[in-house]
Fold this protein.
Amino acid sequence: MFLAIDIGNSNIKTGLFEGDLLIESKIFNEFYLFNNYLKLIKIEKSAISSVVPSLSEKVSEVLLAISHLSPFVITIESKFNLNIRYNSLVTLGIDRICSAEGAFYLFKNSEDFNKYNEQSIILTLDFGTATTINVIKYPGEFSGGIIAPGISMMFDSLKYKTAQLPNVTLEEYKELIGNNTTSSIASGVLNSQLGLIDRVIKKLQSDIKVESTKIFITGGNAEKLFPYFRFEYQYVKELVLLGIKTAYEKNLDIRV
């Protein structure tokens, strides 16, 4: 069994693979729950993607103590299936790379890959604590993307950084022009997200003459936005976990 571990800002996600098959995935918002889970499963190898360095060490220590295995920690120095074209590698979140790795793996194993060319582009949209858009250009270049506040972060910012605005959720959205404060806030947050995506897609199509766009969507807030998308996409809940597995396999030849 292979265990993929995604350490994020809000929680720890795991994916247990048997061969190429993901047999279960879990989300833990308390470390002791993750610790208890490790005691219930038998793993032969594992890999970590983390945006919280201090927690990576803690997870590695627990894995070693319980399974007697040292996990492979994916860093910017690791090998990837994508060619990473990013100017500030030290600040590039490994979760963004793994998301893109997972998307590229799925794309390469789809019928769409037969039509892959210079006018093709692959996007990953990750709706988590932050909303990130990652761009993969032909023939497999991670060329960067966009980082914006996530849905919950935007709502919380309006609530805690202002004196009179109420706590609002996306369920308060009624229409583009809100007719009360809650629906106006909901519209502002929702359409900020949708407008960002729409502009990115249109700008890429205009600037590099994109003829084919493949979009993969993931993240904890993604399902809240499904009713409002007006473009074709593939939702992959475990996209980052799949990317962790493919990145790990790419690095097998350098492991002792």
